[in-house]
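User: quick one, sequence for these tokens?
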């Protein structure tokens, strides 16, 4: 049951009235926690500060004090408290990431150089952590790293987390952004045909990425590449659409399934309208 601000104030006032004044700083952390919960951050910080002056090696107290300062907009003071907490208790993954985030985010404490220092610490402490990699990419983008460096970082991470669908989606999106549609198409084919684990191929976002890449590539090669190449791409797209529609239905995304069914219908109709369909003739006759 949560307390109101007035209830917290009464508890603190009553405790003060029956306590030895010399012992009150010892209750500072308890008071601070109560005040923090009711968003009285100034008062909470004052009490926690009294506590830390006596118990300077209390890591949770320094962390909570930092959280008070952060909510009050004093990010520099928050960072100082967070660092002190980590100095006392080094294994605090979330706090380590929070420091990196504060140095990365736009604002008075944004400092790419310091962010890099703390990011290196986070990388060593949390190998393979998805948040660390996300921050690493953000930092490299802020430093205007070249596409080659960005790609190298993604590939290295893929070697560590090959079963992470989001990472494969990120790599395909990167190649498409760099106007490397053919590479993105080939990469999707590679994952679809050689990936032993189903964790990627059965992922909704990955399947959506594959369909989008195949469709864009097919539109691009129409009228440029030989008909058999276009038809081969159509077949690959239809197969991807079939699986994606199934995933949509499993995930109760009926509207999305209908949209993809329409794309499948258009793709099949384009085959039937093609008088030089060659190997597709048997399929077309069966459909009719």
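Assistant:
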């Amino acid at each position: 049951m949560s307390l109101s601000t007035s209830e917290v104030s009464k508890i603190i006032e009553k405790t003060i009235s029956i306590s030895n004044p010399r012992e009150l700083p010892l209750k500072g952390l308890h008071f601070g926690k109560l005040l923090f919960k009711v968003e009285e951050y100034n008062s909470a910080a004052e009490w926690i500060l009294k506590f830390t002056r006596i118990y300077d090696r209390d890591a949770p107290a320094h962390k909570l004090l930092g959280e008070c300062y952060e909510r009050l907009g004093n990010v520099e003071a928050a960072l100082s408290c967070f660092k002190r907490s980590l100095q006392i208790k080094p294994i605090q993954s979330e706090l380590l990431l929070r420091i990196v985030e504060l140095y990365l985010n736009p604002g008075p404490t944004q400092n790419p150089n310091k962010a890099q220092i703390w990011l290196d610490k986070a990388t060593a402490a949390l190998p393979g952590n998805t948040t660390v990699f996300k921050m690493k990419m953000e930092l490299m983008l802020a430093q205007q790293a070249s596409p080659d460096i960005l790609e190298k970082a993604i590939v290295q991470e893929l070697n560590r987390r090959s079963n992470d669908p989001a990472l494969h989606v990120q790599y395909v999106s990167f190649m498409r952004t760099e106007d490397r549609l053919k590479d993105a198409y080939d990469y999707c084919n590679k994952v679809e045909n050689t990936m032993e684990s189903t964790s990627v191929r059965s992922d909704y976002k990955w399947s959506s990425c594959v369909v989008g890449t195949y469709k864009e590539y097919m539109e691009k090669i129409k009228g440029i590449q030989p008909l058999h190449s276009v038809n081969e791409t159509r077949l690959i797209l239809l197969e991807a659409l079939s699986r994606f529609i199934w995933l949509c239905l499993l995930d109760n995304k009926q509207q999305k399934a209908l949209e993809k069914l329409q794309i499948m219908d258009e793709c099949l109709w384009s085959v039937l309208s093609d008088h030089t369909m060659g190997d597709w003739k048997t399929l077309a006759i069966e459909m009719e």
